[in-house]
Amino acid sequence: MDISSFLARRGGVARRSTLLAAGITKADIESALSAGKVLRLRRGIYAVPGGARDIRHAQSCNALLTCVSGAPHYGLWTLNPAAGLHLSAGHKPVPEDSTRHGPCRHPRHPWLPVAGLADVLIHALHCLPELEALVMVQAAISQGNISQGFLAGKLQGNRNGAARGILDLVIPRTDSLLEVLAHTHFVRAGLKVCMHVELNGVGEVDCVVEDCLAVELDGGTHLEPRQAKKDQRRNNATLKGGRLPLRYYYDDVVHHPERMAAEVLGVLELRRSGAFDAR
Q1: How many helices (H) and strands (E) does the chain have?
Q2: Global pTM?
Q3: Listed residue (252, 196, 187) closest to 219, CA to CA
Q4: CA of 108: how far to CAs of 41, 72, 119, 167, 186, in Å?
Q5: How far is 114 from 10, CA to CA, in rounded Å?
Q6: Burial, 265: exposed, middle or buried (Cβ in 10 Å; 0-12, 13-18, 19+)?
Q7: Which pick of 100, 144, 192, 252 has the fewest CB atoms within 10 Å?
Q8: pLDDT along the chain (279 residues), means of 10
Q9: Could you please report the per-residue DSSP string of 254-276?
């Protein structure tokens, strides 16, 4: 078996015992080292040159990536990249720019130096700002890889009240992080919101607010000419159906949510005052 290919499939790093168990011989390891195909990070740990730095650093200090640093390895949404590594290392030393987390209570990733999904999420719920933790948890639950009830069961007691509060913001279904964030901001603005509503002549819209506004949350693909034309036709069909269409983008939802919510409230007030009545 080719050692470089084996390491690449496992995140770029592995222990000597793992290599030997896979059928790679001591001679193969020494030959790959001599040829520069692999590097010895420290005694008993080998990596491909140019592999993922977070994996290499975690393995080299015998720690597990967790919280936002573990998110990419489970395909979870994140809002902001971590300034430094988030690590669970027990009593072992970690780099000064790292965030140390407590011990892991659940089975770790089967081969990467990454905490188990449950620990990654629990650490995030205790560590990250509310909405940053929310999008990670929402992604994991939407993927069907963990349940809201399971996490709630791990967060009992008064000291976990804030973490349980984040779990309460999770919605049954979401296709993007924009949906759960927009839902949170609209609800906190005192608005009645229904997600994923099927409208006659339009199809499914992301959310209907106060039963009169059809709000769509668009990613980058909606800026493509063909998609933009489709969106405009959906806007027309929404108006024909008696609802006002509004569209918001990543920048609106993530970076300017107060402005977005205020605009929705403003449109609702105009509607209540008769601004959209026929003249």
Answers
A1: 13, 10
A2: 0.85
A3: 252
A4: 21, 15, 8, 22, 37
A5: 12
A6: middle
A7: 144
A8: 81 82 86 84 79 82 94 94 89 85 93 94 97 98 96 94 96 95 98 96 94 89 65 86 93 96 96 80
A9: II-HHHHHHHHHHHHHHHHTTTT
